[in-house]
Amino acid sequence: MPIDPTRWNLEALRERWRVASPFSHVVIDRFVDASFLASLRAAFDDEPASNLQDEIFDVMASSAPPEVDVFRALHAAMTAPVFLAALHAITGESLTGAEMRAYAYLPGHYLLPHADRDDGGRRRLAYAFYVDLFDGTTGGELDLYECLSKDGDIVETRVGTTIEPCANRCVIFEVSDQSLHRVREVTAGGRLSLAGWFVR
Amino acid sequence: MSELDVQAASFRTSRLPAVAVDDAIDPSIVRQTREAAAHVTFEGFDLAHRGRYAFSTEPIPPAALEALVDVASRCSGEVLSVTAHRYVRLRCGDYVLARDDESFCAAVAPHAIDLSLDLSVDLTCEAEVVFTHRSQAFFTVPQRPGVVGIVRRMPTVGRYERYLTHRVGALEVVRLRLVLSSDRG
């Protein structure tokens, strides 16, 4: 089992989730065991990826879900009943699965501020699992925004929390209209991650 | 036949009229307008979900105004007048999302003409203006000094300006943007 949520202190994580600012999130370090992390790192060499560009992003990304077996094993572990039960204990969300892509953020790559809310509200939690940073990575931090609303419109935004990407760190955060976040432009080195959403 | 005339023919027959023309405006007028833009007072805008940029609504030099209205009118075959304008300046880390454009265009008449003149000194190959139809990109105005982009706006058409990365260093992208409507409404 590459992830062992039974070793997590669920009570402490639930409390961190509850008090987190600017919106609910939790950071879990040493997310997978060391040998599995090495396998994931190596798998990036084998995973087909293409450069995706859109209004809010420019990044190298795999298909969803990724193709190589080790990524699929991670996906299986993150959708296993024991894992989803742990997430439920932390966040209160009842989840049935997860969507996943592998990403490589290289110099010039970014993800602009957005909320992940989908029309059906199926996405309940977003996650980013950092597998590796290399060649003196600069940038690639995850910013979570604090939003001030008036009459239903966001009228002020500012970065509330910045989460440093570290190998073997997983960040899980709530999905809502107000859960604005971004990945700062990588200006040197590179950042390998797997990211997506937990869905109901 | 000038490049503008060729592009105008395409514009008038297209389902999604959109053209980008180099040298549509006399280079001396572009220089004069760039000089004017260098002296306007820009105001910063920063709302993460809409964009980060600087803008100004100071007046357009009369010669530039006349030339740009003429270009847009020749392209569309309509008699046009300006209903809104602004200078927009992007520096590294800046961007303008479609959500912000909705705000700017809220008061614009349906089927208005959206024109932008690139006043930048340098070519960055970034921060292009992208137009979408039902959220799918269908036309891109490159970031190239002097280029004029002309697009007919429809309710299904959106617009954004791509992020300007730190690769460009201190270079800036400056555009003058006009929204023009037919005098016949």
Tally of contiguous helical segments of chain B? 4
For the sheet with most strands of chain B, the description reads: 8 strands, antiparallel
What is the number of E strands of chain B? 11
Q: Could you tell me the strand content of chain B as a percent range?
A: 35-45%
What helical percentage do the residues of chain B reach?
A: 10-25%
Describe the structure.
The complex is a heterodimer of chains A (200) and B (185). With 200 residues, chain A is an alpha+beta fold. Chain A has a single domain, classed as Jelly Rolls, CATH 2.60.120.620. Chain A is built from 4 helices and 11 strands. In chain A, strands 1, 2, 3, 4, 5, 6, 7, 8, 9, 10 and 11 form an 11-stranded antiparallel beta sheet that branches. In chain A, strand 2 and strand 3 (57-61) form a beta hairpin. In chain A, 38% of the residues are buried. The mean pLDDT of chain A is 97. Chain B has 185 residues and is of the alpha+beta class. Chain B has one domain (3-179): Jelly Rolls (Sandwich), CATH 2.60.120.620. Chain B has helices at residues 3-13, 27-37, 62-76, 98-104, and strands at residues 18-21, 43-47, 51-56, 80-90, 95-96, 113-118, 129-133, 136-141, 148-152, 157-161, 173-182. In chain B, strands 1, 2, 3, 4, 5, 6, 9 and 11 form an 8-stranded antiparallel beta sheet that branches. Chain B is globular and about 40 Å long. The mean pLDDT of chain B is 94. At the A-B interface, strand 5 and strand 8 of A face loops of B.
